[in-house]
Write a structure and sequence with these properties.
This protein is mainly beta. The chain is about 10% helix and about 55% strand. The chain contains 3 helices and 13 strands; from the N terminus they run ββαββαβββαββββββ.
């Protein structure tokens, strides 16, 4: 099987964990699979889901949470009551209703100085060249996650995926949760489907392994370990 290897760098990034309480924005240490797949689908102009397996590796710095201002709201009310005005200083009329927003401080974590090595292995191997070409010649500057989280593409290659062997990780990785190697378990988005105009995510458990860990993993012909999920 063949895959596309992408090496890139992000000055800062935030890969939001779902379910936070609105006052604290936590981030994953590496981008979720769905975020990478979303970038590929966007660059390829695909409007339906194309199956692919993805391997994520990277080294970055997890920064301490900092206070920043973010707009929160989207609350809908049928009329502008005094209580609604006090809760939401900014209100926008939408049909017969009003939508309220407020600028409020939250604690937000970010990852900085993030080097990434991504492998994308489409189920349809005919799409390998398509994906490679679109990443080498993107229609806009690519980002992972938020629009402002730009990724600088440093290298793109088509590689062969080789059988598993024992290796030492040179980067942190997401591995299957069933891996016997100790690590931190996360629930992350793997893929999604569009339902009623909204993305419905499929979540999976993965294990985050630190660099320097000895593992048995697939590798590419450049001797880079891969955990395709």
């Amino acid at each position: 099987m063949k895959a596309i290897m992408i090496q890139g760098h992000m000055d800062t990034a935030r890969f939001s964990m779902p379910g936070w309480n609105g006052k604290r924005g936590e981030t994953y240490p590496l981008p979720p699979f769905s975020t990478i797949a979303g970038m590929v689908h966007f660059l390829c102009r695909w409007d339906s889901w194309h199956d692919m397996k993805i391997s994520v590796a990277g080294n970055g710095v997890m920064n301490k949470p900092e206070i920043c201002m973010r707009w929160r709201g989207g609350a809908v009310a049928g009329s502008e009551t005094e209580e609604f005005k006090q809760r939401f200083p900014v209100r926008v009329k939408s049909g017969d209703s009003f939508i309220g927003w407020v600028n409020t401080p939250i604690y937000e974590s970010v990852v900085s100085d993030l080097d990434l090595r991504l492998h994308i292995m489409p189920e349809n191997q005919k799409e390998v060249d398509v994906i490679c070409r679109k990443i080498l010649n993107p229609r806009t500057f690519p980002s992972l996650g938020r629009h402002e989280d730009l990724i600088r593409i440093d290298d793109v290659q088509v590689v062969d995926v080789l059988p598993a062997q024992e290796m030492t990780l040179d980067m942190c990785v997401y591995a299957p949760a069933t891996a016997k190697t100790p690590g931190t378990v996360y629930t992350i988005h793997k893929d999604y489907m569009i339902s009623k105009g909204k993305r419905r995510f499929n979540d999976i458990l993965v294990k985050y392994l630190d660099r320097g860990t000895k593992v048995i993993a697939d590798c590419d012909n450049l001797n880079n370990p891969c955990f395709f999920i």
